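Hi everyone, sorry if this is the wrong subforum. Our group has a chain we'd like a structural model of before ordering constructs, and none of us has done structure prediction before. Sequence below.
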Amino acid sequence: MAVDLRLDEPPVRETRTRSIVTYNGSLKDLTKQGCDGCLKNKNRCFTTGTYCSHLTAITSVLGLPDTLVVDHAPIGCCGVEMIFSGGYSLNQPGPGGEYRDNVRMFTTKFTESDTVFGAAEKLKSTVRGAFERHHPKEIYIATSCTSAIIGEDVGAVAAEMTEELGIPVTMLGAAGMRSKLWSTGFDAFFHSTGKARFKAPEKKEDTIIYAGFASIAQETVAPIFKKLGLDMLFLTAGSTIEDYERASQARVSFGQCDVDDSYILSYLEQNYGVKYFHIHQPNGGIGFERFMRDLGAYLKKEETVEEIIAEEREKYAAKIDALRPLLAGKTALVALGSGYVFEMVRMLKELGMEAVHAVSYHYDPLTDASPDRNARTPVADVRELDMDVSVSVSNAQQMEVYLAVKKYKPDIVITRAHGAGCWAAKVGVPCLDPGLGINIVGYRGLYLFADALAASFRNTAVFDAMKARYQSPFTEAFEALPPTRFYDKS
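Answer:
Right subforum, don't worry. Here is the predicted structure as tokens:
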């Protein structure tokens, strides 16, 4: 589906990429059903707490310099943003390595009266007050479930305030009820920032775009692309307006995963001819080699790419081999977003470990980049590497993950951000946040991953102590349930 930034907000992933949040089976079956167009979502008779696209959309925007957000929502929607953003947006360096000292967020503090009579004038007043206090270069007005339910025309307010204040005031479509997938918030972030910031190219530059959460560890990857004559340009939570304005002039692009960035990078390819590489992600050794060969073929620099691959492989081969005996035969359960979970499965196999189960927080049969259902990294891994693994799809349903840990009894749980590690630790299973983005790119990323795994196995004292003291809050009947117990029978 072509990406259209003229819309107020992007179509939700359930319709645009046919995303699902409930499944149990194998990776081969999951990708086959996705490619055949017959992958159907299921409902649950019980669901545990998760979080929504409102969080991901606003958190991403809050990291942008010279920007502020007005949240057109009840104050409860705003509270969790500030807690999360303190640990996320403020820890994302800009392209020059600089860090911000605060995030700027205002709320209209929706009340009962506002839901009856509307709050457009209140919203305008809040935007004016925010502008007078901070004089930002741009403002984003975030919608919410409440403003969407009453039909508040936030787009019209944004247009009026743009004219009045003389800066871009853009609607950020962050109504969580629109989608069951928090990743829809990433689309909303890039949709709004692209609308506010993109410009038609004046010229073409020898740059490669990286889109993702952050540019952390850029100094380790930028020299690799420099050997191909490419400078890196970042579209992240720390990027400037000028970075976005240059994006249309880039030659090629890639991102941390096609969940986070396929929407915006597909737009740049479709409208400005910026070639988007997405079928092979450059994570770990195998992923890096496939990605670099794709890039080298496009740039007609195959010999240079082979030299880069050989150099990177040699640089880390001995370090990785030294860790293999500590990892051989170990098992892991991986619980991550769908853009990373199967990358980790592949990297574990590179290190001689086995993934006994993978929990994907959702799954997209399609991407924005192509109508071809084969154009997904998991599909490529199944077809090129004959990769398979037991899989469930779950939008951070922690009770299901808890039951999966008890069922598969892994030596370690690899997860981040969504609480699965807490339940693993309670029952004495070590848990590891693998890091994301540039940190896991290439043979360096594979070595860092292997080193972190080995460190986790060397010292399990904390997890042993937690297991010794853990008392299950659940009944014996619940503890005996299969992880799929809460799937509807239909």
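For your construct planning: The longest helix spans residues 302-327. DSSP finds 21 helices and 14 strands in the chain.
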